[in-house]
Design goal:
coiled coil, mainly alpha, two-stranded antiparallel ribbon
Length: 157
């Protein structure tokens, strides 16, 4: 009987020890959860601060660039108003007064001048090339496409 009583006491002691360990583990677990929550909060706060600082820096940089552009624009406007002649070119480029008068716009007031490309091939109404010296008036033009595919490649993606 003594052994059964001793084993019962030993079993009771083991259960008490396990319950104490379980309680300690629960406390450790709660402490770790709290620590993790604090770390998450700290990281979140630092990230928010970094984003706000980045936003402020970006706004300051944009304002600085904008101020610089405004300053340059004001200087150019002042230079344009202060120039004695009505010239678009600065003095000293070898351009004389009256140069370029032959390029004035026509009487229609349009400043656009069409220049036929040298590599254009005249086409008749059937789309066939017209040989030089024929009296047939072209109905359209064809252009070389040596660079066409490589130029358009980025647009087809």
């Amino acid at each position: 009987m003594r052994t059964v009583v001793a084993e019962g006491r030993e079993l009771k002691q083991q259960i008490t020890d396990v319950m104490a360990q379980n309680s300690a583990v629960k406390q450790d677990n709660e402490a770790l959860k709290q620590r993790l929550a604090n770390i998450d909060q700290t990281v979140e706060q630092r990230l928010k601060n970094a984003q706000e600082q980045f936003k402020l820096d970006s706004q300051q940089q944009q304002q600085s660039v904008l101020d610089g552009l405004r300053k340059q624009m004001d200087e150019l406007t002042r230079m344009g108003q202060n120039s004695a002649s009505n010239s678009d070119l600065p003095i000293g480029l070898g351009v004389q007064q009256g140069d370029g008068q032959q390029f004035k716009s026509d009487s229609s007031g349009s400043d656009i001048v069409w220049i036929d490309p040298q590599d254009a091939t005249a086409l008749d109404s059937n789309g066939k090339p017209i040989t030089a010296g024929t009296s047939v008036s072209p109905s359209g033009y064809s252009f070389p496409t040596a660079f066409g595919e490589s130029v358009d490649r980025g647009q087809k993606a």
